[in-house]
């Protein structure tokens, strides 16, 4: 279940499309679950790196418990190098 970090390529995508329909605080769901809805995703791809640059370390919360943390997240690798250059972003 990827979704620990999001990178939106174009400011226009957020400002012109997503911000207008962003779920308000009275909705009892997480924004990342909302982003996965077919009506929001619109067949856009989700790129999942082989080794993440984020790490999930919390074991309790609204959608988390110790079992899920231990079974799913604890064994994930993390890429710690900070000198990574992004290129070919406009392909």
Automatic annotation (TrEMBL):
This is Alpha-1,3-mannosyl-glycoprotein 2-beta-N-acetylglucosaminyltransferase. It comes from Magallana gigas (Pacific oyster). It is a single-pass type II membrane protein. It comes from the Eukaryota. It catalyses: N(4)-(alpha-D-Man-(1->3)-[alpha-D-Man-(1->3)-[alpha-D-Man-(1->6)]-alpha-D-Man-(1->6)]-beta-D-Man-(1->4)-beta-D-GlcNAc-(1->4)-beta-D-GlcNAc)-L-asparaginyl-[protein] (N-glucan mannose isomer 5A1,2) + UDP-N-acetyl-alpha-D-glucosamine = N(4)-{beta-D-GlcNAc-(1->2)-alpha-D-Man-(1->3)-[alpha-D-Man-(1->3)-[alpha-D-Man-(1->6)]-alpha-D-Man-(1->6)]-beta-D-Man-(1->4)-beta-D-GlcNAc-(1->4)-beta-D-GlcNAc}-L-asparaginyl-[protein] + UDP + H(+). The cofactor is mostly bound to the substrate. Gene3D superfamilies: Spore Coat Polysaccharide Biosynthesis Protein SpsA, Chain A (3.90.550.10). Initiates complex N-linked carbohydrate formation. Essential for the conversion of high-mannose to hybrid and complex N-glycans. One of its GO terms (biological process) is protein O-linked glycosylation via N-acetyl-galactosamine. Pathway: Protein modification; protein glycosylation.
């Amino acid at each position: 279940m990827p979704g620990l970090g999001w990178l939106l390529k174009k400011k226009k995508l957020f400002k012109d499309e997503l911000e207008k329909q962003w779920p308000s605080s009275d909705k009892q769901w997480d924004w990342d679950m909302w982003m996965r809805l077919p009506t929001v995703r619109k067949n856009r791809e989700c790129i999942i790196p082989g080794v993440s640059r984020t790490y999930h370390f919390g074991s309790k919360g609204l959608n988390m418990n110790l079992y899920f943390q231990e079974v799913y997240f604890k064994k994930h690798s993390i890429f710690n190098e900070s000198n990574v250059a992004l290129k070919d972003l406009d392909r």
